[in-house]
Amino acid sequence: MGVFAASRMHHRPSGTNNPGQRCDLSGNLKNLVVGAGISGAVVARKIAEEWTEPVTVVEARDHIGGNLHDCRRDEVMVQRYGPHIFHTNNEEVWKFLGHFTEWWPYQHRVLGFVDGQQIPIPFNLNSLRMVFPKTLADRLEIKLLKKFGFGTNVSLPDLPRNDEDLNFLAEYVFQKVFLGYTRKQWGLPPAAIDPAVFARVPAVRISRDDRYFLDRYQGIPLHGYTAMVQKLLAHKNIHVHLNTPFARDMPYDRLFWTGSPDEFFENKLGSLPYRSVAFDFLTLARDKFQKVATVNYPNDHDFTRITEYKHFLDDRSDGTIISCEYPADWCAGVNDRQYPIENRKNAALHASYKAMAKGFSNVYFLGRLGDYKYYNMDEAIARAMAMVKELANSLKENV
Ligand code: UDP
User: Fold this and answer.
1) Same-domain check for residues 144 and 93
2) Rounded to two decimals, what is the model's pTM?
3) Are 30 and 44 in contact (CB under 8 A)?
4) Sheet holding 363-365, edge to edge
5) Any atom of ligand 1 within 6 Å of the Cβ of 298
6) Using a 6 Å cutoff on CB, does residue 185 contact ligand 1?
7) Among the three residues 149, 182, 206, which one is the final residue of a domain in this structure?
8) Which runs of consecutive H residues, i.e. helices, occur in 51-191?
9) CATH number of 388's domain
10) 112 lines ligand 1 (CB under 6 A)
11) Cα–ligand 1 centroid distance for 376 (angstroms)
12) Is residue 358 part of a domain?
């Protein structure tokens, strides 16, 4: 049985109502935030602290943190909605979060299972030497270094197709690393997805650095993401209501909507598609299952990757907990929204909702769902911080 099937996790930050208890949301709400994920928590905190205004946060789930939610199970910090690794070059975001958590200096490493061996992903000079005979690996490495230089990240379209060796390498990486994974992850061929989605991961990294991210600041909150979000929300001006979906009759001056825009507009223009993931959690009676936190399976099995959670905070426990990820289309009431599906068609539908939102001058959309954007955590946080700043400026101008 999966770890989360046995019992549901409950989390009660200070200032929340008891799960299930009715709460009074009938009075006029100065600032109403819908969603207690990272975007909602950052907006709430900034307004509560910098504007000293009351903020009400309503959250439909029974916990805070959105898809970052984590909790300890058998001494292992487990992320219920899959692996999240914080990484950023944005100093302002890093400094801001530093008020709410200490960091465990974790650096993410991913291996990809390719033709029976686990090779570093992004595919790098170490991967090259693992999969090709020495003479070919030597030739490719020399050509890559000459063309791009050491320490560069090369995306698939940048690999020259007029050089036989580099063309071979581009095809190899596309076939062995991207094609199968992308089909499973998105349920679509790569051509049907915005190329920016693959560009998140370099096709070839011309170095021997096996880390997944190269950002200046990286880590996992020392006491978990939920504890960090709890601290963000722990302010006398913030009131959080769990198990409380947004209701049309909630009266507000300003509304910060971190859900999907189509939901706010009651699907008037149609439903924005999302990808979801089913997590199969397993507890195993052994110290470690795999060498690194995440192993990707581009070409084997129905799942995309296996994550072993004890790697993140170097948890010491007799057993271990892993999750296998089975991507699926998001289906209302069945599973959770995880990824906006970025392509031209969906961007057009989102743009129509954005146009509609212009008629609601006191409603602000943000977050991975609200902006329908495949944000990393730091981007979502930066967006929330910038939104509060911009709003403060426009309010000043209107005084
Ligand atoms: N990707 C891939 N093979 C890999 C890793 C990533 O094809 O081994 C592609 C895939 O399309 C994926 C995208 O790159 O959806 C972004 O990967 P990332 O690791 O950023 O995904 P996340 O951790 O956000 O799910």
Assistant:
1) no
2) 0.94
3) no
4) 238-241, 55-58, 29-34, 252-257, 363-365
5) yes
6) yes
7) 206
8) 91-97, 125-131, 134-148, 164-173, 180-186
9) 3.40.50.720
10) yes
11) 12
12) yes
Query: Does the residue 240 lie in any domain?
Result: yes
| Banded model confidence at residue 23, pLDDT cuts 50, 70, 90 | low
Q: How far apart are CA 259 and CA 212, in angstroms?
A: 29
Q: Whose CA is nearest to atom 19 of ligand 1?
A: 201
2: pLDDT confidence band, cut at 50, 70 and 90? very low
52: left (phi over 0), alpha (psi -120 to 50) or beta: left
Vertex 263: Cα angle to 28 and 86 (nearest 5): 90
Picking from 158, 181, 206, the residue at the C-terminal end of a domain is 206
Which amino acid does the sequence have at 297?
Y
Let me know if residue 143 belongs to a domain: yes
Give the separation between CA 32 and CA 30, rounded to whole angstroms.
7
Over residues 2-11, mean pLDDT: 38
Q: Has residue 200 been placed in a domain?
A: yes
Q: What is the 3-state secondary structure (H, E, C) of 302-335?
A: CCCEEEEHHHCCCCCCCCEEEEEEEEEECCCCCC
Residue 324: pLDDT over 90: yes
Q: Whose CA is nearest to atom 1 of ligand 1?
A: 178
Q: Look at the block and give the residue holding tokens 């008891």.
A: 18
Residue 89 alpha carbon to ligand 1 centre in Å? 20
Which pLDDT band holds residue 28 (cuts at 50, 70, 90)? confident
Q: Is the CB of 200 under 6 A from ligand 1?
A: yes
**Banded pLDDT at 398 (limits 50, 70, 90):** confident
Residues belonging to the chain: 399
What per-residue string of b and e applies to 114-139 under the rule 16 or more CB within 10 Å gives b?
beeebbbbbbbbebbbebbeeeebee
Predicted confidence (pLDDT) at residue 5 exceeds the cutoff of 60? no
CA of 33 to the centre of ligand 1 (A): 30
Whether the CB of 121 sits within 6 Å of ligand 1:
yes
- 95-111 tens-digit pLDDT: 999 999 999 999 999 99
